[in-house]
What we know:
By secondary structure, this protein is of the alpha/beta class. The chain is built from 13 helices and 19 strands. It has helices spanning 3-18, 96-112, 135-147, 165-170, 185-202, 229-234, 236-240, 273-289, 303-312, 337-344, 358-367, 430-434, 455-458, and strands at 34-40, 56-60, 80-88, 118-122, 152-157, 173-176, 207-213, 245-251, 264-270, 300-301, 318-322, 350-356, 372-377, 389-398, 408-413, 416-421, 445-448, 464-467, 502-503. The structure holds zinc ion. The site of zinc ion has 4 residues, from loops.
Amino acid sequence: MNRRQFLKQASLAMAASAAGGRLDARQQKPQKRIAFGGMQIECSTYGGGLSRMEDFTVRRGKELPGLPYFHFLQAYPHPFMPTLFATAVPGAPVERKTYEALKSEFLGRVKDLLPLDGLYLPMHGAMYVEGMLDAEGDWISSARRVVGDRCLITASYDLHGNISRRVIDNLDMLSAFRTAPHIDREETHKRACDMLVQSLGDGTRPTVVWAPIPVLMPGERSSTLYEPAKRLWAQLPALNGREGVMDVSLLVGYVWADEPRATAAAVVTGTAVGTLRDIARSLAQQYWDARAEFSFGVPTGTLTEIIGRAQKLETRPVVISDSGDNPTGGGTGDRADALAELLRLKVGDVVVAGIADRPATEACYKAGVGKDLPLKVGGTLDPTRSKPVDVSAKVVFLAQADQPAERQAVVQVEGVTLVLTARRRPFHRVEDFTSLGLDPKRFKIVVVKAGYLVPEIEAIANPNLMALTDGSVNQDIENLPSRYRVPTYPWVKDLRWEPMTLVGKR
Ligand SMILES: [Zn+2]
């Protein structure tokens, strides 16, 4: 017997003796055995390349409870036992080998903790694994096979996650974000775990009801800051308060993954199945009725139009979203289209943050601050879909970085201040700029690879304009090719549909 098996057996023996009277002091109820862990990424199938092991941050065992992300778990009367948690910046589909390795390690760690009363899966919902449709369905059903039917499984989801029959049939409860931009992560994770702890406490077995909605919108047309999403999502807390209802979730789904499960959905968890069905049906109908209303909350146009519009404005900084190459939506983040257009139009007083280009970043570090050098910028991650731009650059700043992947260089190319990064990353916070010696408010134009802006950049945007640029998260969704999509609005404009609810098989 190895040490781990010994400790497990010892703890099982203690649990057995707990039945004879050893109680948790806080609740005066026997403690439950709950494990947690999962895998989060959002993958576009419209770009090149694969997300590999080196693209994931993988945390294991004792590393997990210390993460701020999981601090909320400490408030529960039962200890949540860590397994594995893998996260990555949204991007290309996951390499099959990487997925299988992470899944098998996760399942092995879950197995080591058996028997379990509960399992919490913090997922995203829009993972795409090469050669596989419905990756979360695979992950969740695999976890179910390991923990068995008696164990309660709860999941938290991003509101851009996709649901499937397999997901619903293997979960006992689910809760998704209610805001986009996402500012309710912790509340959502808490809702998912509150349901689990409550059910384990009172012995209820919730039911999950799903109403798929054949509508698919990009996040940029379904922000909860704007109508119709604002009013659709605003009603969820009140519905959640109804008798026998534990959670009400409404999901936009993820448009840049070509799979049959990619649609919007209402998912309701609770014990009063009739009420759950009524709520799911009503939300699905309302979403369907609003389908033609979804629109961008900010002015949009081609790159040329948007740059021209920004130049005419008296205000600053005008923040331009380079929306087709947004790494937080699954874009590659290596495209130089905006840089090329700014140089062609001879625009000055502008910062472009940033372009993921490791060779160009390395070249800047080799040259050093103050040096001039020729650079080829862009198209290094997905050379088949975009072209590099040849520029003559002066290195103005090099970030201190322990790892080569963390390197960032600021260069001046004519009137454009350009940030080059070794890895794909968003510029979501003012500090992302100031840490590179840049004050975004000082520039007339700030170009970021983003869709809708996160609150911190939104707060300085004066105003925000969205360029409908090319890339793997192109907003021109009506022209996205598809092999697997089920008949869905807006691809099928005259679709006839009536809401239908499906009850999970738990
Ligand atoms: Zn999201």
